[in-house]
């Protein structure tokens, strides 16, 4: 079996290191397929997994990367023959199971999704978990049948989930999407945001149980103080879709927005979604593939991960970063 390169993290007591390692391909495990990984992408979760005491990985050494796309090179399953182009997101990939930052990877066959046309391996990873998560939230929001000019807040707007959410909502005809970002993010207006607002302008000195009704819905990837301040601002029958905790896991709220304004809060999980829902969401993303040309993206090599990891951890990263499995 031939050698290949992977990005690996290791932590023993207080000693942490990460970097490229040479690994050996092994015989195919039962119930698995082997994939020649062509592309991955990098998410905030990957940055945490690639940092000391990041709280994501429990067993070391580990290859991070919660997403991958490539072609099958070894398989005993007729649904996924050799040459089939597939993607994997979520499950235990890059957390409890070696992940996508690797030129070859074996994964359970139940995790595979055939890449739907007109997407290919690269564009599938332009979406990645961030796009998949955004689509889960947008589809749920769209089922509410809100007016297309209803004000919708997108927190963490310059990140992957936020920016894809804006583009998808705009493509669906929503005209009053409000991007919430601390960064200089005028490019979000080109995605379809009506305006960009600094989160500090939406957090009052004292957060009251109920505030002026300024938004119909929220797609939130931040959590913490910002979400705590926004929930009281939701309009009657409003809804919030929670899919991240970049600003903290604590939520300080009361029952009043729920019982006096009938708001609903929906948790968005992208890890353990069943296959039927995965197929639905990936076909939804494929149907809206035109937005891919609008997204702020960059492509790096497997050997260039460190800089992007640091930018994510420092809050300096914007848009989507695709990782090509070359060094």
From TrEMBL:
Its EC number is 1.3.1.95. Pfam families: ADH_N (PF08240), ADH_zinc_N (PF00107). Signal peptide: none annotated. Keywords: Oxidoreductase. Residues 19-323 form the Enoyl reductase (ER) domain. It comes from the Bacteria. InterPro entries: Acrylyl-CoA_reductase_AcuI, ADH-like_C, ADH-like_N, ER, GroES-like_sf, NAD(P)-bd_dom_sf, Zn-ADH-like_protein. GO terms for molecular function: acryloyl-CoA reductase (NADH) activity. This is Acryloyl-CoA reductase. It comes from Enterococcus eurekensis.
